[in-house]
Amino acid sequence: MHTFAELIIVFVILMDLALAVTGSLSTCIKLVALQGVVAGVLPLLAGHGAPYVRAALFAAVIVTLKGAVFPWLLMRARDKSGARKDVEPLISYPASIMLCLGAFIASSWMGSRLPLPETEVAWIVPASLATVFTGFLLITTRTKAITQVLGYLVIENGIYIFGLALFVEQPMMVELAILLDVFVAVFVMGIAIFHISREFDHIDTAELSELSDWRRGEYGK
Amino acid sequence: METLKPLGQYLAVMLLSPLLPGVINRVKAFFGGRRGRPLLQLYSDLYKLTRKTPVYSRTTTWVFRAGPVIGVSAMLTALAVLPFAGRPSFLAFDGDFIFLIYLLGLARFATVLAALDTGSAFEGIGASREMQFAVFAEPAFFLGLAALARVTGHTSLSAMFGALTEDIWRTAAPVLALLTASFFIVLLAENSRVPADDPDTHLELTMIHEVMALDHSGPDLACILYGAALKFWVFGALIACMVLPRHSGSWFSDSALFLLVMLATAAAVGVVESVIARLRLIKVPYMLITAFAFSALALIFQMGR
Fold it and tell me: What contacts B1, CB < 8 A, 6 or more positions away?
């Protein structure tokens, strides 16, 4: 069973790499959804002796939210914003994949040094740290506002897997609160992206760093 | 009898390797709804080519004539260190996986030199592209073999694959699966199969490997075709040994199973060629970087165990 859980961990890492090289926005959304679903199923495989019904219920809620609701919201935001259908990275895809690999090397070194309780599934800590880093990579090197939401979701996936390494099963209230937060965040960001694209005709974050008055040179007049 | 077996295996490889391109072609023809070339087409091609008189351009030197011969002999030497059905080869020594990589490099170097020696612009393009892709394929292959050496704790190819048992697959399945995927991608690129190069194309501008062999004729071309078949066997045998960890002890059944997996590998290549289109030229390095990432991940996993 643990070999199977390890395979899932490897799958999560491969999806990090895939996210780093995927150019299509809709594929990115689907990959993030798939990663969330896989991460949500993971406690069912790694857990043992815990109340099984509760774990299954959690998994069901997570799978519905991350696998169906979020992709739907994000796809809707993508369609409504009328943005181009690719992610427009600031660095090349090979550089992204190399950064991801470097992150994985760094996180396996860090994972071996962190004073954590022994987990039975190998690589769970490095995988979670690498996933968090991939989220940061998506946020910093992609120009669209929608990829920033995706990066945020990937970071959440990473933190979730990290939590698995610590507790195997998290307290119900904490988990539900996090899910609610993420749901509200994605919901609000979806609306925000829509409004940004309506106001500015684009969702390019590089353009959003300057005030529109300032750009037109009317400042101080 | 025991000393004859490695020799028999070696002869079998030399005889059987031209069969694999035939299998690939038949699978592709099946997907295209055609009957395809005969399974043994390459044998007749080779026989026909060896009886022809080669034609040499006046601008070429001995480098051009040496290229195919060095290429095919490097491949024949490589097969001598390669295990057959998980059984040791007769030239096995510690660290021979590095020897294998250098032999592949030597064969490529000789082919590229021969191509450049013709002074043709098209062959120059082919040589440049071949080298460009090799830069990405070789690290992936090297790291993959290094990870395998780390998994099994041996540095000789024969010992590596001999030590690969079902128990290792059970405990290190992710690592071995990643390595198999990485080797398969390298196989496709190194043997100029579809996502990287189209072996059936006849437009010089889009060819990579084939364009380098344009000026070779007669026995030289036979050497190149035979060397390509042997090279496919080298990579196919690595994958077959990888996915076939069971050693029953019976030489006959092991060998039969191994040959079956080799045919399956060739069929898999045929399926891949039929279902996916060729990548754009600038995207091929991305594919090879993916293979590199797989190998690197496998190595990191193995180190972190």
Answer: none
pLDDT at A220: 47
Rounded to the nearest 10°, the torsion over CA A99, B289, A7, A91 is: 30
Q: What is the dihedral of CA B275, B135, B305, A12, to 10 degrees?
A: -40
Instruction: Identify the DSSP state of B277.
Output: P
Whether residue B299 contacts residue B172, with contact meaning beta carbons closer than 8 Å, is answered with no
- Contacts of residue A120 in chain B, CB cutoff 8 Å? none
B201-249 pLDDT, tens digit each: 777 677 788 888 888 999 999 999 999 999 999 999 999 988 887 767 7
Token reading at B304: 């972190």
For A179-206, write each residue's pLDDT tens digit. 778 887 887 787 777 777 777 666 677 6
Interface ipTM > 0.85: no
Tokens encoding A139: 């946020």
* Residue B111: strand, helix, or coil: helix
Report yes or no: B158 and B94 within 8 Å, Cβ to Cβ. Answer: no
For the stretch A120-176, pLDDT in tens is 666 788 888 899 999 999 888 887 778 888 888 898 888 888 877 776 555 666 777
Estimate to the nearest angstrom the gap between the alpha carbon of B237 and the chain centroid.
9
Q: How far apart are CA A55 and CA A49, in angstroms?
A: 11
Are B171 and A10 in contact (CB < 8 Å)? no
- Interface probe for B, chosen from A7, A12, A13, A107 (most Cβ of B below 10 Å), is A13
For residue A144, the one-letter residue type is K
Q: What is the DSSP letter of B212?
A: G
What residues pair up with B84 in beta bridges, in sequence order?
B87
**Nearest C-alpha neighbor of B180 from the set A148, A10, A200, A101:** A10
Instruction: Burial-class residue B29 by CB neighbours within 10 Å (0-12, 13-18, 19+).
Output: middle
Residue of B nearest to A5 (CA): B174
Residue B204: what residue type? E
- A108/B290 touch (CB, cutoff 8 Å), yes or no: no
Q: How many CB atoms lie within 10 A of CB A191?
A: 13
Cβ-Cβ contacts under 8 Å, B285 against chain A: 94
Q: How many CA atoms lie within 13 A of A131 on its CB side?
A: 32
Q: Which residues of B273-287 are buried (b: 16+ CB within 10 A; e: fewer)?
A: beeeebbeeeebbbb
Q: For chain B, say whether A21 makes contact (Cβ under 8 Å).
A: yes
Computed on alpha carbons and rounded to an integer, the radius of gyration of chain A in Å comes to 19
A194 touches A154 (CB < 8 A): no
